[in-house]
Amino acid sequence: MTLFARNPLPDAARAQWPYTPRFTSVNGWRMHYVDEGQGDPIVLLHGNPTWGFLYRDMIRPLVRSGRRVIVPDMIGFGLSEKPTTEHAHSLDGHAANLTALMRQLDLTRIALVCHDWGGPTGLSFAMSNPGRVRALTIMSTWAWPLPPAEFHTRIFPWRMMHAPLVGPYLLGKHRALAGRGVYLSVVDREKFARTAQAAYEEALPDSMSRLLTWVWPRWIPLDETARALERFQWLERELSQSKLPTLIIWGREDEVFDAATFSKRFKQLLPHAEGPLLVTGRHFLQEDSGPEIADLIKHFLNRLDTKENSQ
Amino acid sequence: MTDVNVVEKPDLRGKRLSFALAEDRVGHYPEFREFFARTFDLDRRGLTEPGFLRAPSGLTYALIFIGRSGEAFPSGVELHAIVDALEPIAEETLDRDLWAILRWMIGGVGNPWTVEDFDRTGRLYRLPGAPAA
Description:
Order of helices and strands of chain A: EEEEHEEHEHEHHHHHHHHEHEH
Structural class of chain B: alpha+beta
Oligomer: heterodimer
Largest interface: A-B, 26 and 31 residues
Number of helices of chain B: 4
Shape of chain A: globular
Helix content of chain A: 40-55%
Distance between the termini of chain A: 53 Å
Largest sheet of chain A: 8 strands, mixed
Low-confidence stretches of chain B: none
Low-confidence stretches of chain A: 1-5
Largest sheet of chain B: 5 strands, antiparallel
């Protein structure tokens, strides 16, 4: 059972989202993505509860820098199909959805940009398809089993938000995450409320269309019984052996995945990585520093080009 | 004291079940599954009939428990308001009742889950049913 044969672009997003919508089928689900520009590909991955719109201020500058920019909407978000049963979603399934898209487009030399759940899904793709990936950019996410963050172990507000029946009520009927949740996790809240909040809310217009907003939090491992524990153990192990050029960017004001803990841990896993570079931002740092982040990625990839050309 | 009570099966003649909320994974935190099993004697009654609650509005709600192969029972639950067959339900009434039912559930699950944390979460996200601090 799914909703929306074809999701309309939210009215609130129209003026800021001029990109041609593209659709394909991945694992039997209809996935929306944008594909702009030419050159080595950059793939921008969002998490919960956002969609490609999160990268609206980054697509143009990256295209202008001579790159091809691909921005998929995860199944369950944005303009992609939204399954209405929890059992349609799994971490491995979402990583496989991304893999399907990357193989259909036959992308190689990918610079993968990961945020939130775009981290575990994108990095799982990267570690299982090393021949397709050239570089990583990692922002406000994690890639190891336990513990995620102190924030995620607390009952108020995190565990309460997605507790049985409370999740469907609070995040479904009352869209707490797609609305006020993102609002609380940006620095310039007034600007966000004026220019972006409605675009996130309208992309998840009905209670059941918001299912993944309470399902995803349940996949964060909190103890040894967690469903994705082995996947995260594998991911951490693979990353610790990875030599992929990597850039770590973090929001200075991030309270969900605080920079001192999480960017430092990624730096320990990937000691060759550049950064962590701190920008203005809470968890959804692209909302406050999109153009600056695009600039950091552009220069990172230009340095990589120069290095490769000199070898 | 709670304003939500477990009640016997009501007379369903002239009524319909008005879908209110669905939960696919009641055992995500196992203490919630244990609460439902204990409260509605589910180990004995299984799928024979729903559980019923009376909410503050006076409406009765049916809890239809879902079984799923390979998982402990119940794996999920649907909440339905029992209303006059051809009448719509007032959405504000439904929302107030759902808030009260969830609050009753959190109180019943018990430590470390508290109604105070539930109320705080509701206030943080500005839910209409959340009581003022």
